[in-house]
Task: structure prediction
Amino acid sequence: MKKYWAIAVMLALVACDRFGRDILFSEPLPMGSRDLARFAGLHQGLYVQADDTLHQLQVLPRTVLLRTWSNYGRVGRAAVDSLRRGARELTESGAWGLSWHLHAEPMGADSARVSLLTIDTLFQLTDSTRHRLRWRGGYYYLNTADSTDGTWETRRLSVRGHRLWLADFGSDSTHRTALRRLLALPDVPLSGAYVIQLSPRNQPLLLRASELWRADAPFYRR
Result:
């Protein structure tokens, strides 16, 4: 029954689409904006994608969660036990910073219809040395400190009416080429880690250049 556990883990990781972390910043974005204690109440809630309701984003007062459901259909009782044990052990170990929750609907004495909920904590305000939440120009900026060198990973989130967008700073070769052109930085590598040194001159360009930010399809309030 180990194969069912392995399949569950693999699909959960694929479904949980983590953003890249290759482009970092020397300081939290935006410089000069105050730190917020929480997300505004009118922006909190559960959001789903129009064509994929199994892919959900939940905004809590101090946390953003990515929730992904994976359906496995009808499986045998032994497989259910293996999946449940694997999900529990992985969640308790804190593997990849994710948690798994197995839902099994009995179908007779020896089988069940199984679905797996994967929860990825994309951002959580704990303390100001690790996380900074800021706002400017209609966007929340979700800053998370790199634990090794004091640099920062930044995502941004916007809510307009019932729609929500979550974006990271693009790190593929197309985005890096655009970054080179915008800031006249020929030393930006087309792959691997790179730290942008923020300044009063380049920050406005970085915030306004929507072509540098990579967003999924919008989520809609449920």
In short: The chain has one domain: 2-221. The longest helix spans residues 77-93. The helical segments are 2-15, 77-93, 173-183, 202-208.
